[in-house]
Amino acid sequence: MRLARATDIPSLVESFGNVAGKLGFPNYVISRVTRSRSTSNRRTVLEMIGTHYPQEWVRHYQHRDYASTDPVHRAAFFHSAPYRWHDIAGLNKAERRLLDEAREAGLPAGLSIPVHQSDGSILLFNLSGPPRSVNDAINSRLAYLISAQFHFELHRLAQIPSRRAAHLLTPRQLECLTWVARGKTSAEIGEILGRSRYTVDYHIDLAMEALNIRSRTAAAVHATVLGIIKP
């Protein structure tokens, strides 16, 4: 399988997308899902690892802050096996509207595969395609297998540079990445650390350069997988 040949996270995501497309799932999102630690506001925090969703839907989703009301994420905390979006029970009005809007945006049906992590987070694979692909039992099993393979390869890639990365990143860079992993913006991190957002961006940029990763979110996910930060 091509996933085993991946040399970094972007190539791993690309290989996953190619295989998913052949299974009838042209759209996908791979993310790390966590619940905020605040007892007063149980927000769901998303860290995107890879995505191939319609851009208009992604912008709409982020603008409406749908992560915390998405029933697909809620269901992930209660399932250990793949589940179809239309099988999610107990939908409220807001959740039904979200799924209706997703269908209108070009995501007609979906299959989710949660992989629960030891730290309580979930590596969540959301695959979308026509109903015939989602309802095909063989497709579901194959989708589960490539998701498990992705998970394995993600850890393989993390183990290669883990010691080197721990020495390359400064305590401030690790601190900034930790807050990125918790879903904070540069401005919010600046307020927490008593620094300007520009100083925060500077430390994050240096961390991305050290890890050889172009996305701050991917850098935070990678650092989490390496075990050098603990969100």
Automatic annotation (TrEMBL):
<dbReference type="InterPro" id="IPR036388">
    <property type="entry name" value="WH-like_DNA-bd_sf"/>
</dbReference>
<protein>
    <submittedName>
        <fullName>LuxR family transcriptional regulator</fullName>
    </submittedName>
</protein>
<dbReference type="InterPro" id="IPR036693">
    <property type="entry name" value="TF_LuxR_autoind-bd_dom_sf"/>
</dbReference>
<dbReference type="InterPro" id="IPR016032">
    <property type="entry name" value="Sig_transdc_resp-reg_C-effctor"/>
</dbReference>
<dbReference type="GO" id="GO:0006355">
    <property type="term" value="P:regulation of DNA-templated transcription"/>
</dbReference>
<keyword id="KW-0804">Transcription</keyword>
<keyword id="KW-0805">Transcription regulation</keyword>
<dbReference type="Pfam" id="PF03472">
    <property type="entry name" value="Autoind_bind"/>
</dbReference>
<feature type="domain" description="HTH luxR-type">
    <location>
        <begin position="162"/>
        <end position="227"/>
    </location>
</feature>
<dbReference type="InterPro" id="IPR005143">
    <property type="entry name" value="TF_LuxR_autoind-bd_dom"/>
</dbReference>
<dbReference type="Pfam" id="PF00196">
    <property type="entry name" value="GerE"/>
</dbReference>
<keyword id="KW-0238">DNA-binding</keyword>
<dbReference type="InterPro" id="IPR000792">
    <property type="entry name" value="Tscrpt_reg_LuxR_C"/>
</dbReference>
<dbReference type="GO" id="GO:0003677">
    <property type="term" value="F:DNA binding"/>
</dbReference>
